[in-house]
## 1
Amino acid sequence: MEQSCQTVFGEDMHGTAGTDSDAEILAAVRRVLTAEDISHPDVVEPPRKASFVSTLLTRLRG
């Protein structure tokens, strides 16, 4: 059976915690909970155009 050295895994397991303090984490959570519009910074969808049928029905109703 083969053995392998996993030093990086050991460093990750015993490394230091992230740099964010509890106050910073709570502030970020508070911003998300009180936000009017939430979007993930990496996934932003462009505004969708109204379909032809939707536009037609809106014009007929109005």
## 2
Amino acid sequence: MCELVQAAETFISKNLGAVLKSADFLQFDIDDVKYMLKLESDEELIDEDKYRSVISWTKHGVCDRKEHFSDLFCFIQLDYLSSEFLNDVVRKEELVCNSLECMNLLVMSLSSRLCGAQVFRKSKGQFDKILIIGGDGCEQSVVKFHTKTNQWSKMPDTNIARGYASAVNYNQQILLMGGSKDNTYLNSVEMLDLNDENPKWDSNLPSMGEKRFTFASTLLNGLVYCAGGMNDNVCLSSCESYNPEGKKWSSIRNMNISRSHHALVSARGLLYALGGHDGNATNTVECYDPRSRKWEYIPPMKTHRLGLTSVALNNEIYAIGGLAGSNRFPSVEKYNLDTKTWIDVPSMNEKRYSGSACVVDGVIWVFGGVGAKTVEFYDPATNKWQASTNMDRERQFPCVLSV
């Protein structure tokens, strides 16, 4: 039965556009619609198809279904839609206009473009490689891992040796931020533009407002967000955002607690800060809404995790590995954004503290950590972790990004 379900999911993902446009889609119940909208696809303009399908499904039984519209609208990645589509189609839709939550999301996306943020477009075949930057003990080293062949290739070294730094991929521009060098904490930023034929690291970028190491970063609505970390042996609660187009850093509301060695991910228009260190390993999780500009606690993880890594995939947030006391562990749990509950996931093959992870083609890849040189991956379809290969060397706290 599991193989049959997996085969069905694979078929639907490959033909998602056609499924969303079919007459059968209009007959689905709300849970089936949410399931479809969670699926990833390599098809072009799939988010336009998702938007149109949500409108059609809601209007097919508008009296009974309009109460679900704002929840379904959150599954549409507005940053993958063109400004013309947002203005000419979405902004004029009555269902959107009648929902304060939907209008807030729309205004936020359009406003970010007025500030210079780019529209994100995924193309077929993109993001099948992984960039691994630095890590304690090999700070300037950068390598690329090819997921299809399990092969490694050398990339240009960073300009500055950065331990415990953080990085994001903004439209194939790799922004590497902060970290520490020779016991000095950094707020400088450098960038590697993978769109160039011969990319080189460029240090001519504005510095963060605060020096940070062992902090976390992610992308949301065309902006880079950085949260927490350490500075002069003080654990930080402060956060800031960066507009890559306007080249400007801005402070945002502090987290409820100070965190270092934590994780930060974005999902459905919100930021999630998980675990880390606030004097001891913590299991607390808090969520930031850019519309209200507030951090709020959500249900805590089952396990206290310091030095964990995290990814968002299929409407769930995964908390992977970490440390509590002197115990490193391989355990994994995930938070379902709909049910707002944490459930256990099979453990990794190796204990990992200070490893890093990313998602490629719906699969979670994990690299590095204290004493860990192996690479392993988790496929939600099989619910199993599998070993892939060994890393070029042991890397603790590397930056890992799909490219």
## 3
Amino acid sequence: MDLLTYKALDTGPGAPQHPSLAHRAWHGLLSITPTAVVFLVGLSLGLGAVGAQITSIPWLIVFSVIWGITLIVLMGMVARWAKHARGAQRLAT
């Protein structure tokens, strides 16, 4: 499924009327764009380079929160890829 399909599942006629927080979080995680993932990975690498040079605890907390968000987003991308692998494979013709 692509990003538009995930959006249709959330807003289409078959969408649940009152989705739970976990349901919304799961679909939100699966609908993150690859551009956002690349941006977060780049930001995390840059912050890792800076974080290794400073000793200020407040900045290290900010960096660790961003690193945690990046790991969660990467797990969402892996989950999306794993979900694609179960269905019919698209073949170029």
